[in-house]
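Table S2 (continued). Query chain:
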Amino acid sequence: MLKAFAAYITYDLIALQEGSRIADALNFFIYDTIKIFLLLSVIIFFVSVIRSYFPPEKTKRILSHKQKFIGNVLAALLGIVTPFCSCSAVPLFIGFVEAGVPLGVTFSFLISSPMVNEVAVVLLWGLFGWKIAAIYMSTGLLVSVLAGFIIGKLKLEKWVEEYVYKIKTGKGQELVAQAFK
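Corresponding output:
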């Protein structure tokens, strides 16, 4: 449907010759722009729904376990199921910091999210089998948990920009704008 719409705009409305480089480039641009816009809209919607059901206090309670290592493991596991892109991982990361989740735990999430994603696991499983996919996933989890644990031990909270701690839902844009002035 999207390809047909992009083709209609490129070849019928604009009347470019099919097969020419400019027409193919414009067709690709229109198709991918619409596809990315739709994907971002869906992802942002689901992240918003998730944030509404998991308020910061509940997230902090779950991830700020008495034994910090368990919080790192839970955050890394959450990173696996979060589709990685700036529209989902960064807002969740900022939400964790806003909620008071320890910085090391939030970094376990932020490291795990791009490293151990569903697409890579499925591709590795299909191309090389479940053993390679399991090694990849367990290694990625181990790296993200250990890195988050080390970051937590280094007490790097003082290096996080002050405006991140002040962000509240609906007030973040003004604070970010002030920080970049």
